[in-house]
């Protein structure tokens, strides 16, 4: 733990917030269309209707806000899942929650021809909930009950199943392939602010709820027997955590598609900075997750310019070595 005193933790959090704001500004400035800081300021103070001002207001600002919200949501969802399952590899992508939400959205488009933002949001939450319940149920089978290894295997199985279902639907409707393929890889490109606004209430509840239960999560992390002995209603807190994960992951998928590995990378980095106290881990993870996705999005614009790499590919490039490192350390290496 690098930041040991409370004052250092507050200072670190302030610096992280400032960095997040800096990268949000950079996300508004940098890209294929050449713009600068003065153009960005003028786009909001003295908009002249130019192409540059239009891109800044309607494309890049929503993109920066969406990347920040999704990065924070996925990181905090990873913290919640790792505490709930006592599995250092837990996160919405690995446990099939993203795949379940993604399948629900693709099924809505292909089968029901749904194109409303509210419908996407509702079905993304439904798909996330079905995947989460399935993983938890399968991981609980057997005499040993719920174990980190069984949860990981169950999550991989559910993720593969929903991914296969999604691919099957796309084969049946090839005309839809181009429309959803970039979304399925995870992307914030071309997303409108209305898309974020439609899921913001759910993501907001998930974020606020996570902050509110941080103290109880510290008790739960001590072990179920200890938590019960201290008077914690473990069943209620587990159900609450599950609902918050569904809200955060479902909202993120509805906006940006299934983006993986953010929920693994950021919680471990955060714990190395501030320790295991969730009252610090959750806010730090939210801010650092936003920074990671903003950096990934900015980088994705330049790798194959004028084309773009989906942001989900960027997080996979970053997260896969980290995943292997954590797996090699073993489940007792936290």
UniProtKB/TrEMBL annotation:
<comment type="similarity">
    <text>Belongs to the binding-protein-dependent transport system permease family. FecCD subfamily.</text>
</comment>
<dbReference type="InterPro" id="IPR000522">
    <property type="entry name" value="ABC_transptr_permease_BtuC"/>
</dbReference>
<keyword id="KW-1133">Transmembrane helix</keyword>
<keyword id="KW-0472">Membrane</keyword>
<dbReference type="Pfam" id="PF01032">
    <property type="entry name" value="FecCD"/>
</dbReference>
<keyword id="KW-0813">Transport</keyword>
<feature type="transmembrane region" description="Helical">
    <location>
        <begin position="192"/>
        <end position="214"/>
    </location>
</feature>
<protein>
    <submittedName>
        <fullName>Iron ABC transporter</fullName>
    </submittedName>
</protein>
<feature type="transmembrane region" description="Helical">
    <location>
        <begin position="151"/>
        <end position="172"/>
    </location>
</feature>
<feature type="transmembrane region" description="Helical">
    <location>
        <begin position="281"/>
        <end position="303"/>
    </location>
</feature>
<feature type="transmembrane region" description="Helical">
    <location>
        <begin position="12"/>
        <end position="32"/>
    </location>
</feature>
<feature type="transmembrane region" description="Helical">
    <location>
        <begin position="226"/>
        <end position="249"/>
    </location>
</feature>
<feature type="transmembrane region" description="Helical">
    <location>
        <begin position="120"/>
        <end position="139"/>
    </location>
</feature>
<feature type="transmembrane region" description="Helical">
    <location>
        <begin position="309"/>
        <end position="327"/>
    </location>
</feature>
<dbReference type="InterPro" id="IPR037294">
    <property type="entry name" value="ABC_BtuC-like"/>
</dbReference>
<dbReference type="GO" id="GO:0022857">
    <property type="term" value="F:transmembrane transporter activity"/>
</dbReference>
<dbReference type="GO" id="GO:0033214">
    <property type="term" value="P:siderophore-iron import into cell"/>
</dbReference>
<keyword id="KW-0812">Transmembrane</keyword>
<dbReference type="GO" id="GO:0005886">
    <property type="term" value="C:plasma membrane"/>
</dbReference>
<keyword id="KW-1003">Cell membrane</keyword>
<feature type="transmembrane region" description="Helical">
    <location>
        <begin position="93"/>
        <end position="114"/>
    </location>
</feature>
<feature type="transmembrane region" description="Helical">
    <location>
        <begin position="64"/>
        <end position="81"/>
    </location>
</feature>
């Amino acid at each position: 733990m690098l930041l040991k005193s409370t004052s250092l933790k507050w200072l670190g959090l302030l610096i992280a917030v400032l960095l997040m704001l800096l990268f949000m500004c950079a996300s508004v400035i940098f890209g294929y269309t050449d713009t600068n800081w003065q153009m960005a300021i003028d786009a909001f103070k003295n908009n002249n209707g130019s192409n540059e001002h239009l891109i800044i207001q309607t494309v890049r600002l929503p993109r920066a806000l969406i990347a920040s919200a999704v990065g924070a949501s996925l990181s905090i969802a990873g913290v919640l899942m790792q505490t709930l399952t006592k599995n250092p590899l837990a996160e919405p992508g690995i446990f099939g929650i993203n795949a379940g939400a993604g399948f629900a959205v693709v099924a809505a488009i292909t089968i029901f021809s749904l194109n409303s933002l509210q419908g996407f949001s509702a079905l993304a939450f439904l798909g996330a909930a079905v995947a989460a319940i399935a993983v938890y149920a399968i991981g609980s089978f057997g005499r040993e009950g719920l174990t980190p290894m069984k949860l990981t295997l169950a999550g991989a199985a559910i993720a593969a199943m929903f991914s296969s279902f999604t691919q099957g639907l796309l084969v049946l409707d090839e005309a839809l392939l181009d429309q959803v393929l970039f979304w399925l890889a995870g992307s914030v490109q071309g997303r409108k602010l209305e898309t974020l606004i439609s899921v913001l209430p759910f993501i907001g509840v998930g974020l606020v709820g996570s902050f509110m239960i941080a103290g109880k999560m510290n008790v739960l992390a001590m072990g179920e027997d200890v938590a019960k002995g201290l008077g914690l209603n473990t069943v209620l807190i587990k159900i609450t955590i599950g609902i918050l994960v569904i809200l955060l992951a479902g909202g993120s998928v509805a906006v940006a598609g299934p983006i993986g590995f953010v929920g693994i990378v950021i919680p471990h980095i955060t714990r190395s900075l501030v320790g295991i106290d969730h009252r610090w881990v959750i806010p730090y993870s939210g801010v650092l997750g936003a920074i990671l996705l903003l950096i990934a999005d900015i980088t994705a614009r330049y790798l194959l310019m004028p084309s773009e790499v989906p942001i989900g590919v960027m997080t996979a490039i970053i997260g896969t070595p980290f995943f292997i490192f954590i797996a090699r350390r073993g489940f007792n290496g936290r």
